[in-house]
Amino acid sequence: MMFGLFKKKTEVEKLQELYKKLMEEAFKLQSINRSQSDHKYQDADDVLKKIEELQSKS
């Protein structure tokens, strides 16, 4: 546990966190502002494509 504290996150891990955050924001905006929600979903989809691209390279 202690050794994992200072482990640097990989690019994929950072993108996965960003994807999760964007999806949560989009879900919250869904009932308030549909166009902003759609924009967040699009951003999340772009991040997901980057994740898949990085995973396919390795």
Description:
By secondary structure, this protein is mainly alpha-helical. It has one domain. The protein is built from two helices and no strands. Helix 1 runs antiparallel to helix 2. The two termini are 26 Å apart. The mean pLDDT is 91.
Structural class label: mainly alpha
Strand content is under 5%
Spell out the helices and strands N to C. Answer: HH
Instruction: Specify the overall morphology.
Output: flat
Low-confidence stretches: none
How many domains? The number is 1
Explain briefly what this protein structure is.
With about 60 residues, the chain is an all-alpha fold.
Task: Please write out the topology.
Elements: H1 11-29, H2 34-57
Question: Which short descriptors sum up this protein?
Answer:
58 residues; mainly alpha; 2 helices
